[in-house]
Recover the amino acids of this structure.
């Protein structure tokens, strides 16, 4: 079935080709993907790796435009490589290719920095369209091409369903109160609703938000919410059945 986002857009003759690295521990699979990509004049496979630790060092050195990343790798797995890579080289775009394809797995992959996620039986035409899309800054989620803003909204909606794993948490430069404000921002509350929830004034809420954005060097509250999600600073809001007296 044709992809919903399939496009024939290619680099012009004067544009450099899209530089791609394939990370997968099966040489036969790498060869098949490489052959598909190298048939295209605007895409060039510049390197390959079959090991997570090796791949991370290679990708930091080469800094390709796009990485095709398997999840099940020796050493670091593909999601660990992706998370560390995006923290160090945020401009590298990662497409996850794996045997497991469900909404929760896609959510966790996009949350840590991947730009797209596909099962390995993806059609060649769909894979080519995705490589081109993510190299231009788009996301491809559930066969739909999304802008960064659309992907942010998708992440926030699925966060309320799946949350994050406790082991994902990392150091946060925010105060406890700022973290409380950030958690309710992710729930989609307005400043007035945040003030009511936390028992503080709207001006205090505004002050906290200003401080959060300043500390994280971000321009708006949506960016702050996504930043917190990707760094594991926030937890899934408790439901009544999970709460203890």
């Amino acid at each position: 079935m044709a992809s919903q986002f399939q496009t024939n857009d290619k680099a012009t003759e004067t544009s450099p080709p899209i530089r791609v690295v394939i990370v997968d521990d099966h040489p036969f699979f790498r060869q098949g993907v490489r052959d598909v990509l190298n048939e295209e004049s605007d895409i060039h496979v510049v390197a390959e790796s079959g090991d997570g630790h090796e791949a991370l060092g290679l990708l930091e050195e080469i800094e390709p435009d796009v990485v095709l990343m398997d999840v099940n790798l020796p050493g670091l797995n593909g999601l660990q490589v992706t998370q560390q890579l995006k923290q160090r080289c945020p401009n590298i775009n990662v497409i996850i290719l794996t045997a497991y394809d469900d909404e929760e797995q896609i959510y966790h992959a996009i949350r840590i920095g991947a730009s797209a996620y596909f099962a390995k039986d993806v059609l060649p035409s769909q894979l080519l369209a995705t490589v081109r899309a993510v190299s231009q800054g788009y996301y491809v989620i559930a066969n739909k091409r999304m802008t960064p803003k659309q992907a942010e909204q998708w992440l926030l909606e699925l966060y309320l369903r799946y949350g994050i794993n406790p082991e994902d948490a990392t150091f946060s430069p925010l105060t406890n109160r700022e973290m409380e404000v950030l958690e309710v921002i992710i729930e989609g509350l307005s400043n007035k609703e945040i003030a009511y929830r936390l028992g503080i004034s709207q001006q205090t809420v505004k002050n906290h938000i200003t401080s959060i954005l300043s500390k994280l060097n971000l321009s708006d509250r949506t960016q702050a919410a996504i930043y917190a999600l990707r760094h594991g600073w926030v937890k899934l809001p408790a439901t009544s059945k999970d709460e203890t007296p």
About this structure: The two ends are 52 Å apart (CA to CA). The longest helix spans residues 148-162.
